[in-house]
Amino acid sequence: MRVLVLGAGFGGLELTTRLSDELGDDVDVTLVDKSDDFVFGFSKLDVMFGRTVPDAVRHPYRDIVKPGVTFVQTTIRSIDASARRVATDAGTFEADILVLALGADLDPSATPGLVEGGHEFYTVDGAFALREVLAEFDGGRIVVGVTSTPFKCPPAPSETAFLVHDMLVRRGIRERSEVALVMPLPVPIPPSPPASEAILASFAERGIEWHPNTVVLGLDPVTKTVQLPDGASMPYDLFLGVPKHVVPDVVAESGLCVDGWVPVDPLTLETAVPDVYAVGDVTSVGTPKAGVFAEGQAGVVADAIIARHRGLDSAQYDGRGICYLEVGDDLVARVQAVFVAGQTPYGEFDPPSVAHAEEKGEFGSDRIKRWFGRDWAATAG
Ligand SMILES: Cc1cc2nc3c(=O)[nH]c(=O)nc-3n(C[C@H](O)[C@H](O)[C@H](O)COP(=O)(O)OP(=O)(O)OC[C@H]3O[C@@H](n4cnc5c(N)ncnc54)[C@H](O)[C@@H]3O)c2cc1C
Fold it and tell me: pTM for the whole thing?
């Protein structure tokens, strides 16, 4: 059986690892990604806030040596889903089963003034460049703002506001600074009211302004103002933005999207095209766009492929995922969330602790061990 996995992020790495562990050389898996290396989303914040250095959080794909798996570093140019054929800069690939795990691309230029007058912290380059900008910041008003929905890792802007606060305190410039968070959500973690209450209380304690149910439409770099809906605005000295999310161009052109994302069966992750699956941020499956959910969905597709190989039935997706949320002071809270199609999402909240910070570190280290076969100490906190 030939399996072609497009994208070696959370979803693609988990899928290929599971297939290799279970089936080894019995399947022929090709994993394609244009990047040199994988970087966890949370490592972007670690670099940005000076807790580690860029080289320590890059995991080179050349380290992937797994039975049955061939990694090809190249850019995918077109996807013919019904033929399960993909054209790349390294030639054409065909498969019996095609899995799209190409994530969400980011488009900072879609928000007027963002590129000229602000910074974004969602791309690797953007987050890493902010390390120096934040280190040199000498006090003033920092606005953390989301420009559109959907966006990856809904807790990340809240974590960023907490980490900005910590940084300002550490450097003795909190007194002459302000921190504001502009969010499209009504509360920080919608599926978990206790988590949201705790976070809002922590924002209030730290003097972090909370602006819910709104988005940043643009920035005026001349007047240094953030434009909000209905003509409202707010001043900023430093803007840290979450840019607009879109599917990669090659997915948009594949004919697989409806309303901008790839629809899938929420239980099996199958697309409308036979033997073509999609997992993670590229889909509109109904879970938040986060690595833990991409990983869980990849597990279901792995089960389906393994079961098909062995002539068995496979399990369905249960929509579960654990989100770790940094709240500053090196503490991490945990939300165990469940998103099942047709049901109200819910999340169990475990308050911030050092133990959860360590667990988050182990989460990262465990993935790197399984996916890349090497030891890595993720930053805990
Ligand atoms: C600041 C921040 C913090 C985060 N924190 C967390 C967290 O704590 N927990 C969590 O679960 N999630 C977190 N996330 C979200 C998480 O990073 C993503 O949701 C997750 O990576 C999605 O996995 P994926 O497999 O769908 O896509 P991705 O991991 O984005 O992988 C997609 C891959 O496709 C490749 N690709 C795209 N187009 C092409 C092409 N044309 N040719 C070849 N290759 C291509 C890309 O290079 C990429 O490697 C965070 C995100 C950010 C930005």
Answer: 0.96
CATH number at residue 174: 3.50.50.60
Residue 372 CB–ligand 1 contact under 6 Å: no
CB 155 within 8 A of CB 356: no
C-alpha 4/C-alpha 85 separation (Å) is 9
Pocket test for ligand 1, best of 153, 261, 363 (most atoms within 8 A of CB): 153
Pocket of ligand 1 contains residue 250 by CB under 6 Å: yes
Question: Roughly how many angstroms between the first and final C-alpha of the chain, as a whole number?
Answer: 42
- Integer angstrom CA distances of residue 11 from 50, 259, 272, 292, 350: 28, 22, 19, 9, 26
| 50 CA → ligand 1 middle, Å | 21
**Closest CA to ligand 1's atom 19:** 290
Q: What is the pLDDT along the chain (381 residues), one digit of tens a residue?
A: 999 999 999 999 999 999 999 999 999 999 999 999 999 999 999 999 999 999 999 999 998 999 999 999 999 999 999 999 999 999 999 999 999 999 999 999 999 999 999 999 999 999 999 999 999 999 999 999 999 999 999 999 999 999 999 999 999 999 999 999 999 999 999 999 999 999 999 999 999 999 999 999 999 999 999 999 999 999 999 999 999 999 999 999 999 999 999 999 999 999 999 999 999 999 999 999 999 999 999 999 999 999 999 998 888 899 999 999 999 999 999 999 999 988 999 999 999 999 999 999 999 999 999 999 999 987 765
Distance, CA 104 to ligand 1 centroid (Å)?
7
Domain boundaries, position 192: 108-245
31: Cα separation from own chain's centroid? 19
Q: Do 221 and 283 fall within a single domain?
A: no
Report helix, strand and coil shares of the chain as percent, to nearest 5.
35, 30, 40
For ligand 1, whether the C-beta of 118 sits within 6 Å is no
CA of 217 to the centre of ligand 1 (A): 24
* Residue partners of 42: CB distance under 8 A and separation at least 6: 324, 326, 360, 364, 378
304 and 226 in one domain? no
Pair 166, 88 in one domain = no
Residue 204 CA, ligand 1 centroid: distance in Å: 31
Do both 205 and 261 map to the same domain? Answer: no
Q: Is residue 79 part of a domain?
A: yes
